[in-house]
Amino acid sequence: MLRSTVSRSTISRSTISRSTVSRSAARAAAATRAAAVAVARAATGGATARRSAVSRSVAKRSARTAATGVLLVTAVLASATACGSSDPDDPKGGKGESAGDDGWLEVPKTPVSRAVAKIGETSARIEEKVELTDRGKTYPITISGSFDLGGDKGRLSVDFPSGEIKHMEEVFDGDRVYLTPIGNVKKGRWGQVDRRKAEAHHLLRAPVNDPEHLLLQISTMRGAKKRGTETVDGRPATRYSGTLDRDTLSLRLAERVRTDMDALIAKLGELPVTADAWVDGEGRLVRARISCDMGGNAVKITMDLSDFGRKVTAPVPPAGSVQKIDVAAGILPG
Question: Is the pTM of this model over 0.85?
Answer without folding.
Answer: no
